[in-house]
User: What shape does this take?
Amino acid sequence: MNGVNGVNGGDGASGKASKDVKGVKNGVKTAEIITIGDEILRGEIVDSNKALISERLLQLHIDTRFQTSVLDDPADMVDAIRRAVARCDIVLLSGGLGPTRDDMTTAVVADAFGRELVLDPESLETIRSFFARLGREMSDNNSKQAYFPEGAEILANPIGTAPGFMIHASYGAAGGEANGAGALLFAMPGVPRELERMMEEQVLPAVARRFGGGGVVRARLLKTFGLGESSLDEKLHHIAREEGVDLGFRTRFPDNYLRPVVRASSVEEAEEQLDGICREVRECLGALVYGEGDETMEAVVGCLLREQGKWIAVAESCTGGMIAEHITDVPGSSEYFAGGVVTYSNESKSSLLGVPEEVLQEYGAVSEPVAAAMAEGVRERFGSDFGVSTTGISGPGGGSDEKPVGLVYIGIARAGCDTHVEGFVFPLDRTRHRTLTAQVALDWVRRSLLGVELVGPSLLRQRGGAAPPGSGGA
Assistant: This one.
């Protein structure tokens, strides 16, 4: 198990690449993340590990300058690893620590820096014990996971069979070890939950011990709905302009996220600055900001319903139960979700919700009067405070000149208020059309509970003739 044939040593550009990049940008330490695996390059999986690692490093005032993905190819892996070590202070590898033939990270790292592979008996016993707890016998090929580059510090994996490791690596023009400062290199498993545990418990503390003391970085995540990214930037043009502060924008359909980032000399100073920035953003955007951090729209709506002792029921046609699914994704939703029905056919709209047949015949299923009758019908039948309805044409077929693909009507019936209905044309594919429709419906419930105006998303065009607040519906 000593090395990988044909890739050790050599001159090449790899060892010389961008050495002047290391440690730049106001003395902030730099990192490169390398994710390894054919499945990543083929698009078979979503590479979430890069985002997770970058976010955690930012909290230690470490900038991720490069992100690389490579195939399970020894030559490509060596090239990527040597380049990273030459130009960054910290290199983090993800993947390739498993027991199969395409898991080559440990051997490649050893070969790239001229180190022998050495068996760690304690790791081997830990792997055996892992299988024993599952009532299984360890396969012979799992033993390769107990070999590490000579001099490596082993990183335990309490929830998987693949330990990680850390080495101090440097690479010079002649290949092998160099006399320079080099980089701190971490190899971690590719399974996201195993990587996250190893990052939190071992990698980040090791990085903090080595590179701590250079200030702190703190960030928040504000979630908005209803306004496009460019419009948000324009409205917030005066916020977060001082030195050491950044305001990032990211779209995650159907929402837009704002991430204020602060670099400061202490945690207290950073948090105080973040409090001020978030306060300014909320004052500027108002109800467009619906949550922070991990909060979802359905969780925010659920919290408001619970606090106010309100109940909701849903009647869905084009969304096919998506709103009910979102609501019940939240633990404890039985405290405020009365129930829902998917009334896809005209017959079900009439028999289950009481939509008058003459209304269906005169206006059609996708219409303002039908959406109003659906919302009112479901609220009455479930005895809830809110009744929400959707009826539309999500496509790709089924449209006409009068009612194009993308047309949708959303209704909300509220105790003590007139039914509110609006029509929109969302020119999107079927999945995103349904997703946006469900989010608008939930946002209307949130806005109703907050006592603010019900508005539709301005990021897509609205169909004329929508019912204003207070209109009577059917």
Notes: Residues 1-21, 173-180, 460-474 have pLDDT under 50 and may be disordered. Residues 188 and 470 are 58 Å apart (CA to CA).
